[in-house]
Amino acid sequence: DTGVSQDPRHKITKRGQNVTFRCDPISEHNRLYWYRQTLGQGPEFLTYFQNEAQLEKSRLLSDRFSAERPKGSFSTLEIQRTEQGDSAMYLCASSPTPSAGRWPGELFFGEGSRLTVL
Amino acid sequence: GNSVTQMEGPVTLSEEAFLTINCTYTATGYPSLFWYVQYPGEGLQLLLKATKADDKGSNKGFEATYRKETTSFHLEKGSVQVSDSAVYFCALRLYNFNKFYFGSGTKLNVKP
After folding, report:
1. Nearest residue on chain B to A90, judged by CA atoms?
2. Which of A44, A45, A109 is nearest residue B44 as measured by Cβ atoms?
3. Is there a cis peptide before residue A104, judged by omega within 30 degrees of 0?
4. Among A10, A60, B75, B111, which residue carries the largest CB count within 10 Å?
5. CA neighbor of B107 nearest in space, from B48, B46, B19, B3
6. pLDDT tens-digit profile of B32-77?
7. Strands B106-111 and B100-102
8. How many CB atoms lie within 10 A of CB B15?
9. Residues of chain A with C-beta less than 8 angstroms from the C-beta of B43
10. Distances from the Cα of B12 to the Cα of B45, B75, B82, B101, B109, angstroms
11. pLDDT exceeds cutoff 70 at A102
12. Residue B111 contacts residue B51 (beta carbons within 8 Å)
């Protein structure tokens, strides 16, 4: 399977605990995105990487959230001191760098990691 | 700002009925427009896209035309099937920007 994979698919945790999600993008894609989706809403942008560099962060990403992509391949999203409001589906997507021949680059999504904070 | 507004769901149709899901957008620049679909238990996947005014995107019998004058990108299908039951998301992306802006999604239920 050469799609975007996310792990774990579902995480249940108690308020105040830390959680970490992992995303493995499509191997030749150098852009990686994290989105958050709550029930009945569309995905909301959190952050994005070009290779290992984190180039943009949303205001939604509080200081309890941190994302890394240390070698420009997989990425992790950590949430510290989870709150009930963090309960959501966390989506990872990847895309190749847009070029004249393939603009606009589409996003390829994983199946998501669902977080439930009790 | 940049945003996408979709018609509220759920939309319930009988098999072979005509489908329209409305989408309008607000953009600070000149966007490309997309429809993504999410089948139950699966990730979002691109359904179709259009990059400039009057372009028509099409795939799997679905169509949408980029209407700059009405800032719209309505999704249509002439004859829906039960297998089309899913959540449909309209989205935009500005040229040379990296974020996609998504609508809230419209759930489609097709009954046999």
Report:
1. B43
2. A109
3. yes
4. B75
5. B19
6. 999 999 998 888 999 999 989 999 999 999 999 999 999 999 999 9
7. unpaired
8. 13
9. 3-4, 91, 109-112
10. 22, 15, 11, 26, 5
11. no
12. no
- Give the bridge partners for B11, in sequence order: B108
Residue of B nearest to A112 (CA): B43
> Regarding predicted confidence, which is higher, B17 or B51?
B17
Show the 3-state SS of chain B. Answer: CCEEEECCCCEEEECCCCEEECEEEECCCCEEEEEEEECCCCCCEEEEEECCCCCEEEECCEEEECECCCCECCEEECCCCHHHCEEEEEEEEECCCCCEEECCCEEEEEEC
Give CA–CA dist A59/A77, Å, rounded: 15
Mean pLDDT of chain B: 93
CB contacts, 8 Å: B46 with chain A: 106-107
Least CB-CB distance to A112: which of B34, B43, B102?
A: B43
| Residue-wise pLDDT tens digits, A28-38 | 888 999 999 99
